[in-house]
Amino acid sequence: MTEPTRGVPDLLADFSHEVRNALACIHQFGKIMLDGLTGEVSREQREYLGIMLENASKIRRALDRASESS
Amino acid sequence: MLKRRILIVDDNADMRLGMHLRLKAPISTIPFSRSDAFFGVAEARKHLPDLILLDLGLPGGDGFTVMERLRKIPFLAVIPVIVVSARDGLGNQKRAFEAGAKASLEKPVNNDELLAVIRQSLNEIAGINQPALGSQGLA
Asked: What is the mean pLDDT of each run of 10 residues along chain B (139 residues)?
C-alpha cells in the first residue's frame, strides 16, 4: 500500500516547523552563552553573539511574514 | 532556594538540554533522555512534577494527546501544563488553552517570559497543595 501524497501546504508547514525548531535552539544556546550561564563572556564575544541572535531573529521574522501571507 | 520539579516533554534533545540549562539554577528540572507522547504521560505519572513544559510536535501523538491523557487521570490533571512549541498559528494556541494549558508560548521563547509564566502557574496552585513560591524561589 502506498502512502497518500502530501500536499505542498503540509510540506511547507513541516519545513516551517523544522526551521523554527532549529532557530529556537540557536536562539536558546546563544542566550545561554550571552547571559553568562556557561562562563564569562568578553565584550567581543558578546558582540558576536548579539549578531548571531539578531540574524536568527531576522530569519524568524521572515518565516512569520511568509506564514501570514500563505 | 526553593526547588520545583519541571518535566520537559520535547522530542528535540538540544531543546531539552537548553531548557534544562535555563531552568536548573532557579528550578530543579527532570531532564529527559528521550520523549514522545507516551513517555510524556508515563514520566508525569512516575515523577509527579510540579509543572510540565510541553512541546506540541511529538512522535507517538502530539502535545494535545498528552494533555488529553493527563486530564483523564485525576492526580495528573491538576499539574499545570505550559505549551512551548514551534508550531505557528493562533489556532494551536486556542487549542492548547481549550485542552487545559495554563499558557502557550512560541519558540524561541523569551526566558524572562517563560520564568514569569512558570512562577505564575506554580503560585496559582500554591494555595492548593504547595507552599507559596516567592520571587526568591525563581530567579
From this structure: 80 88 77 72 90 88 91 94 81 87 88 88 72 45
Sign for the pseudo-dihedral over CA of A37, B79, B61, B117: negative
pLDDT single digits (tens) B35-69: 778 888 898 998 899 999 999 888 888 899 999 99
- Is residue A7's pLDDT more than 90? no
| Contact predicate A43/B31, CB 8 Å | no
ipTM score here?
0.74
Count CA within 13 A, CB hemisphere, residue A70: 15
Contact B111, A32 (CB under 8 A): no
Contact B21 A37 (CB under 8 A): yes
Give how far the C-alpha of residue B135 lies from the chain's centroid of Cα atoms, to the nearest Å: 19
Contact (CB<8Å) B57/A17 = yes
What's the rounded Cα separation, in Å, for the pair B101 and B81?
Answer: 5
What letter would DSSP give residue B28?
E
pLDDT at A54: 94
- Give how far B47 is from chain A: nearest CA, Å: 26
Nearest chain A Cα distance for residue B54, angstroms: 14
Q: Positive or negative CA dihedral for A31, A39, B54, A19?
A: positive
